[in-house]
Batch of 4 targets.
Target 1
Amino acid sequence: MTARIIDGNALSAKLRGELAAKAAELTAQGTQPCLAVILVGGDPASAVYVRNKVAGCEKAGIKSLKFEYPQDAAPADVLGKIAELNADPSVHGILVQLPLPKHFDEKAVLEAISVEKDVDGFHAENVGRLSQGQEAFVPCTPNGVMEMLKSIDMPLRGAEAVVIGRSNIVGKPMAMLLTAAGATVTVCHSGTRDLNFHTRRADILVAAIGKPKFVTGDMVKPGAVVIDVGINRLPDGKLCGDVDFESAKDVAGAITPVPGGVGPMTITMLLANTVESATRAARKA
Ligand code: NDP
């Protein structure tokens, strides 16, 4: 069997078209959605992510503001900019690109962003709201995964879902969303005994580990949906995921590629959260 490929580029293009239409409608009514992006330091990967986010905004008719700070920036300067953006009614989303330099208190920076403008969904209040099933900004990567599952009509209620990884930005919110959708969720991590036992039971297997080609075909249940969140750069410069695509695609029922899978969906969901925030602001105005 060769798995169905879940094409994140195609799904993104469709969703971004719908978002562009919504953004145009809001703009015509006097509220152009606007995302402010803060980049601290010269990490090349972060610079690429920020460039892609800004380009995604432009294509969808969302205004973007970019603020760049050097590696040795004073945290107070960045916090001052966040306070300014929080108070600016024309800004609907604020994103601080992670990771921050070591002398920053990352948690304090994320908590400084207004909950209403936290389009990354990393603020503790949004995380708490999500865990309680209240309206919240959902972190973009796991939200993108949910859209991908929806796009293939994957039944989630009662499905066995296994998430490898328990980070705040991917693994934990992924598990919360799958749980809320009715799946039976197992979260695996570096301390998990007999990882293969868990992965081989999974109807939905999400890999968010940060280790190239870690999940091999023999770890996959025949017919399972395999979602590869990983983005790893190989020594030859090529990108690969946390799943060994070649062996997994022969066992899985559906699989996401890297690149062209979850990556573009993450930016799409950021645009969606920004448009949602602008919609809420327009409603209040
Ligand atoms: P983290 O490093 O924060 O978390 C990795 C997780 O994997 C940890 O929970 C860790 O366990 C677990 N892990 C590590 N080794 C093993 C192992 N041998 N067996 C089982 N679990 C293990 O990474 P992120 O969640 O931030 O990112 C994961 C991947 O997703 C990365 O490749 C990253 O680049 C990518 N990513 C992609 C995005 C996209 O848009 N597609 C967005 C964000 C991330 P423990 O907690 O015990 O240490």
Target 2
Amino acid sequence: MTQFTDLGLAEPILRALTDEGYESPTPIQSEVIPAMIEGRDVLGIAQTGTGKTASFVLPILNRIIEENQRPQPKTCRALILSPTRELSAQILENVRGYGRHMRISTTLVVGGVKPGPQIRALSKGVDVLVATPGRLLDLMQSGAIRLNETRTLILDEADQMLDLGFFPAIRKIVGHLPAKRQTALLSATMPKPIRALAHEMLDDPKQVSVAPASRPIERIEQSVVLLPKESKKDLLLELMSDRAVERAIVFSRTKHGADKINRHLVDYGLKSAAIHGNKSQAQRIKALDGFKTGAVKILVATDIAARGIDVDDVSHVVNHDLPNIPEAYVHRIGRTARAGKSGVAVSMCEPGEYEYLRDIERLTGLNIERVFVGDEAKFLAEARNATPAASQKKQSRPSGKKRPFTADGGGRPQGQARGQSGARNAGGNGGGQGGGSKRPRRRARTGSAAPVRA
Ligand code: AMP
């Protein structure tokens, strides 16, 4: 088995890895680190949980040690672009952690906070800059930072950056970097626009594709409760009141929905906080810190806000709404069962979300344990007549040609795109899914090995 000492990393980095307690590199690290140390570009398909962050951070640090130069004012030597503030902050934390035995200057440039401190931090120049594209572009335009000295560029979570509409900003940013540079692009999926971007920006890249190192999905006890929309609130309270819940993330498809769910939980006396894109940076930090320390037991989140959350002891993930993009399901439930632990993921599916459930099962190749609350035949009849609950929302990658990832890292065909579904066009407006019992008939279990039963 490859060891960190085989990869060509400098001693201060190896020491930091020993401090972290890492015994050996993950598969993506074994491939990406030597390639980047050789100076090659990299195109990686990898999700969070594979150790991908260290795979690009460690070679950056190694290069900084080898080159042993101070950065010029208002420049950075390495630039890491990521889609969200949280993920950027987490990457920066990693850079500082792995760089703790070396002299290194780092800073974070993200939106939602005043630019003044960021501009001051950049004025002397930094070794490693972690940024979200929008704010970085603003600071470039105001002259606070120039990228003509940047030798390494990382584009992390490229598919998420595509979804958020960052590609024009990325193209502008990259236009200011020297042509002679090292670039790595990482993405959980590889739809066409990302391949095209990679083609534009990478030079003969080493291509790496890995399944999640720990395959957390296999350790997650998954179930889906099929129920009328109006029963969701009660079921959520039941699930969240269970003593087996130590720390839970509840996912909502919309920001507004996240606020409503959070208010509902707080009104019930549960320690809950919401995190989404309309919250200020201070509110987001407060919610995340509270969640990490345990002061907040339940975090209600949208997909984008949750992307960067790396907290080890999340015992439960609840999908209050099923995501309309099936990959998001895998990302969501992967928030539990981290660091070798097991976890419970319960999803709620109203009739209008049934198509999403089918998409998720096609993508993952799983038959998720189903529990009906109320009348099964009635639910299925309503599902057949329902418009998907979020059909009016944009489909981020409408081509349906995403490279699917699956529980075993393989590439099963994804099946038909949602737009081709017969159910979608069968009428109805997604509302009015009345009927069924108001309350789940029996308590859904959250802590045992058995799936939820109704
Ligand atoms: P990432 O995929 O970068 O989000 O990393 C997922 C988790 O794996 C993080 O909590 C890292 O601290 C951890 N990790 C990264 N590399 C290793 C390694 N070689 N051995 C054990 N854990 C690791």
Target 3
Amino acid sequence: MNEKLYSKITDALVNDGYIIIENALNTDLPKKLLNYIQNQDDFKRAGISSSNKLHLDNTRRRDSIKWLDEDNNAQTDFLAFSGGLQEYLNRSLYLGLSYYEAHFAIYEEGDFYEKHLDSFKNSKNRVVTTVYYLNEGFEQCDGGELIIYNENDKEIIRIIPKANTLVVFMSERFPHEVLPAKSLRHSIAGWFRVDKK
Ligand code: OGA
Ligand code: NI
């Protein structure tokens, strides 16, 4: 049922390495996921890992996260989409993706994520990144844009994190950053990996 979407993403990853899709999934899914988040009280300040130790460095990253599980229908629907994409990518590109991990992220006013790579070259863990946004009625004045750079650190595109926009890119190829949010910003960042869980 998602075959068309999967094939569009796959083609883009092969040709450009990234894709931005507005109105990507079911129209009600962002609202259901947001509703779930709003009832959770165990979001934790995110960390940056350095030399295997997780430490909180709020000069580089300031957001709060909670890992997804199969706790309710909204998360299960989202994970069904990503599971299908994983299979499709493995079938068509032989990527050998072994699992998908994803977390919700909340950026409060002023929160940001400095320019970074999700995976270092040849580290062989995170291979494909997904970001999915949940913010109804978000506009440029709400800040929190995602900026994607190319391999020469040149800006390629700026994305407004509007509800139901999906971004997919090759994790090792694209530095990216989240500009300071001016309104409460909700997203799901996820990664297809090739290592063992
Ligand atoms: C990340 C990330 C981007 C976003 O969590 O690694 O880059 O737009 N998130 O939320
Ligand atoms: Ni990232």
Target 4
Amino acid sequence: MRAWRIGIGAVALTWVALWGTAHAAETIHIKFSHVVANDTPKGKAAEKFRELAASYTNDRVKVEVYPNSQLFKDKEELEALQMGTVQMLAPSLAKFGPLGVKEFEVFDLPYLFENYEQLHKVTYGPVGQALLAKLSPKGILGLAYWDNGFKQLSANRPIKDPIDLKGQKMRIQSSKVLDAQMRALGANPQVMAFSEVYQALQTGVVDGTENPVSNFYTQKMHEVQKFMTLTDHGYLGYAVIVNKPFWDGLPADVRSQLERAMADATVFANQIAKQENDKALEAVRQSGKTQILTLSPPKRASWKRALIKVHEEMASRIGAELIQSIYQATGFDPARL
Ligand code: LMR
């Protein structure tokens, strides 16, 4: 009787071991939440990562992409990532302040980058990597930077000179640098989740906003904004981030394939960003609903002069050394403005 029981026990143990092995090979799910439309640089890059992750892991990893704030709005999605409710996000660099990593707001400094090439000296260089490392103590791992593009200003009145924004209520992301930027123009900044902007513009809760055109067009903001000025006054891009305990706990072979998928998705993201914004600008133009204004070189210079003081004002918040290291990487010289 006793031997029989031991026999049953051994079978059960073997079964548990086998089940464990099978279990270890089960599909791994990654919930990737974001706030923009699929048809944007970030939406397309998330989709590319989903495809590559499946292909490189022979379908072991299933990335589920939830666009358009379907699961969470801006602030909630960062909390959800830390709690492990979702595993992956790509928030704009302007949204890390509430998490306690305010240094990312350096990317919001007006006219810090003239073009993507200058920006990439930072995002692909040591300064960018050091910034991502600051996320680790928060239980978050920074995997990559994905581009969107340069922001334009929109409103229901024509914005030609910095003074034209005086008294306008302008929706901004949560960054204190963006708050200072709008105040430098005499505007009233209002922090608001991205998912709420269309309605706020429609109902007049805010008068205007700023975003790269791809975000503007895919949220149909052209329906509710009469004018857009091509100021290119600041950059908007993303840090792709994951829940660190989740990532560290992945089987090593899976993790390395996902790293490869992320590297390839990043190349794709940063290749399409400019053309996606150019396409969106053309679509806004075609819609005939928002009038597009451009700045002559002297006018652009006057915008730069009006906004450059924000760099100095914000040095105590984001670190004078960090700002200097970006100036050095890009060759930016504020004295030249
Ligand atoms: C915004 O809130 O305006 C942007 O950060 C949205 C996004 O993720 O591009």
